[in-house]
Write a structure and sequence with these properties.
- Helix content is 77%, strand content 0%.
- By secondary structure, the protein is mainly α.
- The protein has one domain.
- α1 (2-16) runs antiparallel to α3 and α2 (18-38) crosses α3.
- The longest helix has 27 residues, at 49-75.
Length: 82
């Protein structure tokens, strides 16, 4: 249960802070691609900023939803009874 609450917190934090996290990761990716290109290694272009932001947002929301479902099912062992 504690792990599920931790996963929920991480998912919501990722969804809340998806822009700065994605911008930081993308800056690192551009630096790494530039380093490879200086050494003559061809690498594909990094994705656009909006694509990376959307990926991190969806990752956070997906993690939070899965954690909420696991918490719900652990509190209601009968499942979804209507």
């Amino acid at each position: 249960m504690i792990l599920d609450l931790l996963r929920l917190t991480i998912g919501l934090t990722l969804a809340l802070l998806h822009r700065p996290i994605a911008d930081f990761i993308l800056a690192q990716e551009y630096a790494l691609a530039g380093l490879f290109r200086q050494r003559g290694i061809r690498v594909p272009a990094p994705p656009t900023t909006e694509t990376v932001r959307n990926i991190y947002f969806l990752l956070g929301i997906t993690l939070a939803l899965i954690s909420m479902a696991r918490i719900w099912l652990s509190l209601h062992p009968g499942g979804f009874a209507f």
